[in-house]
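Sanity check

After download, print the first record. It should look like this:
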Amino acid sequence: MDSPACRLRNATNRRNGSMKRLSWLVCIFCLFFVFSCSSGGSGSPGDGDTSDGDEIPPDADLSDGDGDAVEGEEDSPLADPCNPNPCTEEHRSFCTIDGKGGYICVCDEDYRDYGDRICKPAFPCQDETECAGAHRECLNANGAPLCGLCLAGYHEVNHVCEADVACEPTTCSGRGACDDAGGIPTCACETGYVGDHCEDCDAAAGWHWNAAGDACTQDPCDPNLCATMEHRVCEPATGACLCELTFCDIGGACVAAGASDPEHGCQYCNPLNDPSQWSLRGADYECRPTGGSCDRAEFCDGTGADCPADEKFGPEEECRAAAAICDAAEVCDGEHNDCPADVLSTQACQDGDPCTARDRCDGLGAGAEHCAGEVYDCHDHGVCNDYDDVCTCDPTWGGDYCDRCAEGFHDVEGQCITDGFVPIAAGSFWMGSPEDEPGNIAWEEARHYVVLTRPFEVMTHEATQAEYETLIGFNTSCHGPLGEPYGVGECGPDCPVEGVNWYDALFYANELSLGHGIQPCYVFENVQCFGSDAVPGVDPWECYDPALEFTGIKRADVSLVGVDSVYECEGYRLPTEAEWEYATRAGTETALYSGPLTSLHPLDPPDPNLDRIGWFVQNAVADYGGVSDCKSIFGEGVTCGPHPVGLKEPNAWGLYDTIGNVWELVWDPYQRQYDLTTPEDPAIDPFGADYWDVVRRGGAFDSMANYCRSASRGGVHFDPSSSYCNQGFRLVRTLTGR
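Expected structure tokens:
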């Protein structure tokens, strides 16, 4: 069984388990001391003696049944003083032996003696509801409950505990900082807001609600009282309603920029000039528009506010243009705003047909069907020109209606052929020579079949010194005027031009084309001249300056103008090898167009077939002093040279000197061996190799007989810049067939 002290301690612990054990031990000691002092010393159980220092609980009652101390009986030490229980006081019914045969009455469990020898509740707040209902702390006041401070989560308001209130997102209306220390939220409002919950604008500081009603502002233009006023805006500093920047404030109304004064036509609103009054119009402003096609528009003079007086157009003004080709134009009469009535034309017109002349309206209607003229024809050699009622003819044709050849051309069976040229029909032939032909060089004259698909015209003779000098401006021939200082005689203007290279011949061809109004065949690029240090890229004409020691084109890149094949060129050009041999043979297959070649040795008598058609080493004695020494044939002091063209017999197609006199340059580059074509698989419009070593044909005044054959290619080929005193050219031009 627990001692009263232990029961007291346990009861106390049940009351307040959070108190430290040491505090209760101190309390028990104090109670023990008090009751020990009041016991009056030692004694038997009968008299309540509590001597010898035995411990008596502070809540023990040492009285007998009447409240007096109990006396023990010495002769009965085993008697139980607590049986029967002598402790009958309310809430003090627990009896305990004191160790000396006496007893002590102790307060019941959950009761205690607070020093006034009355057992009162040890836990008066345990079932107390008043303090709890008031949200206050319950305190033990000597066994009686006492309501103290407000509980946690509550605060004192007028002696009442009210629940603490926490800050909410809406406490300060979203316009301030909330502080809920002490359980009462308080708001620190943002600038411009006042009130417990920042719910009002700070009117004293000039703040007011905006137009949306959701924020305070000091903006005098929010809300904007000017919004309902047309063309007015709120002035931010004062809130005044002013006209927009592009308006003038005149007479209390907002007038748009550019708007005219309704009372004075030469005044208008110009806010950039003065936004508070009318400004003057400039002198170019139309203040009164035209009232009709014959009424003048009036303009301000730049100095007055009013528009000038109205004026009309006179007869100098066309008021109605011709609506159609045969509608006459009308003019104003100087009196009326409107144009006079429409009238029809009987004047000259253009009916839209370029091939009619002297077109005129019939006065019966305005449309093109009332314009007609006399039909004329360009004869398929030009196009009609509606402006001067004549034809624009093809380059080789002339006359108002292209019914005759142009100057420098002659008619051959309906074709205009260049003067000094003959037409050659398209055709086919065996090119080259058979191996048994005397003088044949098999490796470069292999016989093969060629087809030429385009007709062409060719010079009847080699280009002469006179022709070259007329077109180019001077004569470069060795046997010309420039040859005399070098001991070479002058052959004459009708002799073939020589001393030229391949570039010179092409340039001459281009200039001849331009002279006849024909598209040239060649394009020269990166031109470099003889006798000049100029970098490539000069105009070809610069290479023919007589001041140069050596004239002519030394180097150039040459291409065709707008075509892929030389046969398609419009202008004059050098013939291809195939064209040259085709024209020279004139339908023959013998070594010469005059027949076979029977004599080849230079010391034999000249071959008669060759002697009658060409100048070569056995007959070209030059009594004027040629460049070639012919002494091995004719003796000492005899020279050979070119002769005037056209002195020997022509071939069947009218060509002179294709054999002998001077070598003739051709267009296509040298190809060592021909392709061995046949009539079943011919070479069509052939072109040479793809590198530019040039070829020359026909032999010259200093050539042996075997080099004067129709098939001979000279056995050599040259750089395009090479020029020789026995080298010339003749030109051809593709015919269109019209």
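If your output differs, re-run the checksum step. Summary of this record's structure: Residues 176-217 form one domain.
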